[in-house]
């Protein structure tokens, strides 16, 4: 219905960062930055029609540049971790920046969350913003010139969709996602434990104590990772379970039944009984990293309105390929070759009940 552009801040090298606010005819709005492709604000109605901002984020550019946590950002070239930043592809060894203990996380030192993206506005009943970057061969250690377009769209059905389309001129690996933190009661409303989650995932990836998958695909049956019947996020989060303990909560890849699909299908639903807000998750990606915001502790970077960070007050549902799949033959394929098109889609659709 409309797109409005406002100056959000200026980077130290003088480049301007803009915030684009997309609005649909129901009054739902999303604010997107060209810096990092960040989703900075998402206002959706509750069952009384009251609009609340349901995602984490900051008031100023400096917090997005210096803060941790990847609030709302596009993540690439690799969502989640690669063990010791090392992998071999077509017989050649690659080494990546180590930025998370002994591992590589979310694309390295200057991942896609730090890039200033080119933006094309497409207004209409279902406004969209088309973001584009060229990531050069060798960017953060990854091979191939990558041409990447991410399209955000606000639909008439209160969906926020994200489509990732990429090509390369050399064989490479790719695993893109978006790192938005949600709390359907409002980003500043407290614990996510009362939210009810359903996920169509029948296995998950146990990890070591550096959060690298061990290689096992374990059935969720009888574990705290079983969300096939909806349950509150808090129900089993404190269980005496080695995976939960070493991550400080949920921070695991759950694998959708049957894997990736051609067309997007419904794979998850988050519901807040108090406000009535529902968020359905549609995707053609094979997995979701369910992260319960365990590391939201950085007091230096409060959220919008000065609201302080606190663990497990926001959660992420990052659709993606399996973490570290570059190092596991039994994991989802993440190799992209010249002539192929990487084309993945995720939609977060909001309603009430
Ligand atoms: C990871 C967490 C990590 C966080 C960084 C999540 O996707 O799973 O382990 O700490 O991103 O904000």
Write the layout of secondary structure elements.
Layout: E1 2-10, E2 16-23, E3 29-33, E4 39-45, E5 51-53, H1 61-66, E6 74-75, E7 81-82, E8 86-89, E9 92-95, E10 104-105, E11 118-122, E12 128-135, E13 146-154, E14 159-168, E15 172-173, E16 177-178, E17 181-182, E18 196-199, E19 201-204, E20 218-219, E21 231-232, H2 242-247, E22 251-256, E23 265-271, E24 277-283, E25 287-291, E26 315-320, E27 335-336, E28 342-352
Antiparallel strand pairs: 1-2, 2-3, 3-4, 4-5, 6-16, 7-10, 8-9, 11-12, 12-13, 13-14, 14-28, 15-27, 17-26, 18-21, 18-23, 19-20, 19-22, 22-25, 23-24, 24-28, 25-26
This protein binds beta-D-glucopyranose.
Beta-D-glucopyranose binds at residues 69-70, 80, 211, 251, 289, 291, 295, 316, 318.
Defining traits:
40% strand, 9-stranded antiparallel β-sheet, 6-stranded antiparallel β-sheet, binds beta-D-glucopyranose, 2 helices, single chain
